[in-house]
């Protein structure tokens, strides 16, 4: 699986994913498991009211999170 599209609950800890925007990219992430996944681009209007400073903070927050699921993992 590449860095795209999971939504819903984290497959590791079952908690709902949280979401943030980096510009018009929407990311799902789990703080506990430190994973992230790109959900899509410009799907929700929320990013339009955010600022460069927010996106930089968001990018910093998930920068070290692992992208996606281990290969072979089936949700
Ligand atoms: Zn998790």
What are the key terms here?
four-stranded mixed β-sheet; 1 helix; 4 strands; 15% helix; globular; disordered N terminus; binds zinc ion
What does this structure look like?
The chain is of the alpha+beta class. It has a domain at 18-67. The protein contains 1 helix and 4 strands; from the N terminus they run βββαβ. It has one helix at residues 52-62; strands at 18-22, 25-30, 35-41, 66-67. Strands 1-2-3-4 form a 4-stranded mixed beta sheet, covered by helices on one side. Strand 2 and strand 3 form a beta hairpin. The radius of gyration is 12 Å and the shape is globular. Mean pLDDT is 84; it is low at 1-5. Bound molecules: zinc ion. The site of zinc ion has 7 residues, from loops.
Summarize this structure briefly.
With 75 residues, the protein is α+β, with helices and mostly antiparallel strands. The chain is 15% helix and 27% strand.
Along the chain, the helix and strand elements come as: EEEHE
Query: What percentage of residues falls in helices of 4 or more residues?
Result: 10-25%
**Whole-number radius of gyration?**
12 Å
What ligands are attached or bound here? zinc ion
Low-confidence regions: 1-5
Structural class by helix and strand composition:
alpha+beta
Distance from N terminus to C terminus (CA atoms, Å) equals 11 Å
Helical element count?
1
Q: Biggest β-sheet: count, sense, barrel?
A: 4 strands, mixed
Q: How many beta-strand elements?
A: 4
**Shape type:** globular
Strand content: 25-35%
Strand order within the widest beta sheet? 1-2-3-4
Average predicted local confidence, pLDDT: 84
